Amino acid sequence: MLNSHNPKISIVIATYNGASYLQEQLDSIAVQTLQPYEIIIQDDHSSDKTSAIIRHNMLKLPIKFYENLENLGYIRNFESALAKAEGDYIALCDQDDIWVPQKLELLMEAIGSKSLAYADSTLIDSEGNPLGKTLSEKLRNRFIEAESPLSFVYDNCVSAHAMLFRHSLLKHLFPFPKNLYFDAWVAACASSENGISYVDKALVGYRQHSSNTLSTHQKPKNSFFDTLFSKQTKKSEEHSSRVAVIDDLLHVHGLIDSERALLQKLKIAHASFERHWFNFHLMYLLLQNRSILFAITRRCPLILALKKSIGLKLYRFFPFL
Q1: Are residues 192 and 290 in the same domain?
Q2: Do 59 and 24 lie in a common domain?
Q3: Within 13 A of 304's CA, how many CA atoms are on the CB side?
Q4: Model-level pTM greater than 0.85?
């Protein structure tokens, strides 16, 4: 039986050329008020000093270190590392963030009987300085306590670096889906089991790089007709992508019949985008289930439903909609 006063927590980190920031992240783990049972680190054949930094920290932290003989890519490396976790609870960790000392303790207090607990994050720059904004403020989303995977059809509020979940959830996570982002996949699976709890505090310094922040470069100017064609293509790709995401969500363990039926209807509606002027059935589905489907977004459900229901035939004439 799990000792609630001494929970076994596995931290899982997938590294690759992370020497610039890894030490700062490991230092923040070392001062956690609730110490981990183990730290699984799997390095994806780094060419910098990442391995040396990890080995140095093995003297003071319960690190289990694995090195790939060849580069597997982030997804395969992370999947392999996660499968090695043995703790009763698992916390995912980026190689370049900074945890506040109470992160694990507060998430453990919040998870209760739920399958997953998560928190907000503070955005920091490459030097670790706060940018004066949280992730929830940047995304302009509600960070909710979800009970249904349907909340993750159109949005996500759960970040991998800010979550703690039960080891028992692992058996439902593999293999990783092809289209749905991993953190949204974990959140959907957790919500379908015993639900998700939320800690309304920023417990991670989430480092922003050029690869995960908005570009400041000016976009090239296109001709009017090129812009119209580009918008039509983007709209069509959005519907195709939504079909693929729904396909992944249909594999969530624990879906009840009504959830599965709604996902199937949404999939058919989005797949028919190119055949419609306006899809009244899709609009009806979205508005009828808006409290779940639009639980995360702060945008107006009516406007969202209208925009998503416009078919390609009408969009060719009014691509600005």
Answers
A1: no
A2: yes
A3: 18
A4: yes
